[in-house]
Every structure is written in structure tokens, then in C-alpha cells.
Design goal:
This protein is an alpha/beta fold and 390 residues long. 37% of the residues lie in helices and 18% in strands. Helix 11 links the parallel strand 13 and strand 14. The termini are far apart. The N terminus is likely disordered.
């Protein structure tokens, strides 16, 4: 009879949301807006999932309305009023059904609906499931604990060549070897910045320019050729995300490798660009893509198309950063990863042992189960935006 006894599977019992504002330590502007200013605060939404056995998993959202349409208010209400009720009671391991239910609760627009909110729930589910299995997230996703380091790419915020060079040298002193810079903010200085970065970067550095949809077709063609001549390795999202035909025209005019970000939310989005030969990299961005599960689908498409990976974020917090690194390592990718939250956000109160995980230009993962860290819940509550609590 013992052979017929089945272990009761854990299910999602409760999902809590913690809207907070965290201190900004530096300003960050890009072509479509700003992620915040030094001395201000940045909106985040942490998600705590509790399963039927009392196990816990954490996820996190970083809404930036100028980059995506989601706000802190919309993330909180979407999770609390729509996503959480739809998935409570679901077996923890059924991540396919997790996304089916989330899509049923909040449907698709042109692409995945409310992906940043969904990503926070998705990461919390993966964290809880991997912890319950006693595995690191990278092993849970099919990788190996032997791969435990991801090299970071430093985001240069300067739009002046001399200042960009100074920022690069400061980053090199911290052990960082790879660099990305924001283009299309000051078009008059873009080429000078690109040349300065390429000249000052160490041998073997990977350098990419991100225009965040900021160029016109003519500007994109000019910048692409100038960046390619300077030594930039890839130009990301040079044109508006909803103008597929413009990327097709640019691809015919320039030799520089291209990538998309804002235009690549769902796996279907990326398949379209890859199938037409318009992109040379997949930019893995967990929060943009609705979580780890759909990001894995995008990676599968990239592998089938023979395209390499890059990993990126937009001042995401440390939970998302660790989750993205766990995902990358599960597929053998060790960087560069432009996961730049630590450059702009002070999370030291939430993660007092953060230096054990991030040092000398890399994220270092240990053998802790799940994502590999837990925010200090007491400290988290000191940053609460109480008027947004559901």
C-alpha cells in the first residue's frame, strides 16, 4: 500500500504585495524618459508568496512608466485584485497553468498584458518551487550549480565624451570589464561618446549602445554606421517598438548587429524578429517578458535561430537581478549582463549581506535554494507606501 501513497503537492496559499519606494543614489536618464533622480526615490513592488506547507518565495517588480506603461499603482492593483485571486490554490509546480491563468485574468494587448506585474508573481512562484525542491533556481531550471558567476555590464549615464570616459575608468577600478551606454538622449554627442567608450574600454570588453526607441530612421542609420566604425558590438532598440517595418529597413542599410528590447515582450514578438533576420541577439529581460517561464521560451527561440544572449534590466532590484542571473547560468550564459540596479538604488537595508553576492564586477551565486536571498521583511516595511496597500 505504501507504494500507492502520494506526497501532497504544495499549492499557492497566499500572495502579499509590498509597494515601497527605495532611495536613489544616482540619476538615470534615457531616450524615452528617466528611471529617477539622485536624492529621490524609486517605486518597487515586492511580492511574497506563501505555499500550503508554509514555504515562501519572493518576487519583485520595478515599474518605470516612461519605459513601459505599468506604474506602481497598476502593478499593486493588478496583482492584488486580478493575478493573486486567479492563481491561489494552484499547484506550485504548474508554471504552465500559472501563466495560462494570469493571461486569462489580464489578457493580451498587442503583446503580453501587464508583464511587469506578472513577472513579480512568476519569480515568486519559481523561488518558492525551487526552495521546496531544495535546489538553486539555476539547477531547478535545468542548469548546474557549478556555473556560479555572471559578469556585469556597467551602464554609462554620461552624454559627454569626457564624462563617459571618467565613468568608465571608475567602473574599471571596481573590476567591471563590459559597458553599455544610452544613446539618442543627446544626439549631438552620441558618436563622440561611442568613440570615447570604445577607446577607453579594456581589451575583450563588450560594448553596446541602447537607444530606447529614441532615433528617427535617418538618425538610426547614421548612428548605426558610426557606432559600428567606432567598435560598438550591438545597437539595441534604435527605433520605436511598434514600427517593425522601420527595423526591416534599417537592417538593410547597416552592418552593426541589432537587438530589440521594448519591442520584444512576448516569445511571439521575438520569434517575429528572429524569423525575419532582423536581430542578432536576444536581450533577456525577465520583468519585461512577464517572468522566467516566458523568458525560457524566448531563449528556446534564440537557440533554435542560432542567436546568442545578452541579459538586461532597468534598475531592477536585487531579487530580480539574482533571478535573472540564475536563469542565465541555467543556459550557460555568464555575461555580460546589464543589471544595473545597484548603480542607482540603495537596497542595503533590505539585503545587508549583498556584498557576498555582488563584488568585483560580477554576481556570485552560492548554493542557497531558490533565487538565493530573502529581503529583510522588517526593513521592507519601513519603506512601505501605505496608501497603496490593498
Amino acid at each position: 500500500m505504501a507504494n500507492n501513497v502520494r506526497t501532497v503537492e504544495r499549492s499557492i496559499e497566499r500572495i502579499e504585495v509590498f509597494p515601497v519606494r527605495l532611495p536613489m543614489t544616482a540619476s538615470f536618464s534615457f531616450a524615452s524618459g528617466s528611471a529617477g533622480k539622485k536624492g529621490g526615490t524609486a517605486p518597487h513592488v515586492f511580492v511574497k508568496l506563501t505555499d500550503s506547507h508554509g514555504g515562501v518565495g519572493w518576487g519583485e517588480a520595478r515599474p518605470v512608466p516612461q519605459w513601459s506603461y505599468e506604474t506602481q499603482e497598476s502593478v499593486v492593483s493588478t496583482i492584488a485584485k486580478h493575478l493573486a485571486p486567479a492563481v491561489v490554490g494552484l499547484p506550485l509546480s504548474d508554471r504552465f497553468e500559472l501563466h495560462r491563468r494570469m493571461h486569462a485574468a489580464v489578457g493580451r494587448g498587442p503583446s503580453t498584458g501587464q508583464p511587469i506585474a506578472k513577472a513579480a508573481v512568476d519569480v515568486a512562484v519559481h523561488d518558492a518551487a525551487a526552495r521546496a525542491a531544495g535546489q538553486t533556481l539555476r539547477s531547478f531550471l535545468g542548469g548546474s550549480d557549478a556555473r556560479d558567476r555572471v559578469d556585469l555590464s556597467y551602464t554609462l549615464t554620461a552624454h559627454d565624451a569626457a564624462e563617459a570616459r571618467d565613468q568608465l575608468e571608475t567602473a574599471r577600478a571596481q573590476g567591471i570589464k563590459h559597458f553599455n551606454f544610452k544613446a539618442a538622449v543627446d544626439r549631438a554627442t552620441d558618436v563622440a561618446v561611442a568613440r570615447a567608450v570604445c577607446e577607453a574600454a579594456p581589451a575583450g570588453a563588450f560594448i553596446w549602445a541602447d537607444a530606447n526607441q529614441g532615433f528617427t530612421p535617418a538618425e538610426a542609420a547614421y548612428a548605426a554606421d558610426a557606432f559600428h566604425e567606432a567598435g560598438v558590438h550591438v545597437l539595441e532598440q534604435p527605433l520605436p517598438a511598434d514600427r517593425f517595418e522601420l527595423m526591416r529597413a534599417l537592417r538593410k542599410k547597416t552592418k552593426i548587429p541589432l537587438a530589440v528590447d521594448e519591442a520584444c515582450v512576448s516569445p511571439g514578438d521575438f520569434f517575429r524578429y528572429a524569423a525575419e533576420g532582423l536581430v542578432d541577439y536576444l536581450v533577456v529581460k525577465v520583468t519585461r517578458s512577464g517572468g522566467l517561464f516566458p523568458s525560457r521560451e524566448q531563449i528556446a527561440i534564440a537557440e533554435a535561430a542560432g542567436l546568442p544572449l545578452l541579459v538586461s534590466g532597468l534598475t531592477d532590484g536585487f531579487v530580480t537581478k539574482q533571478a535573472a542571473c540564475q536563469l542565465a547560468l541555467a543556459f550557460g550564459f555568464g555575461g555580460p549582463a546589464a543589471l544595473n540596479g545597484s548603480q542607482f538604488i540603495d537596497e542595503s537595508a533590505l539585503f545587508p549581506e549583498k556584498s557576498k553576492h555582488e563584488a568585483k564586477g560580477s554576481v556570485h551565486l552560492d548554493a542557497s535554494p531558490g533565487v538565493g536571498l530573502t529581503p529583510d521583511e522588517g526593513a521592507l516595511k519601513t519603506f512601505l507606501v501605505k496608501e497603496l496597500l490593498p
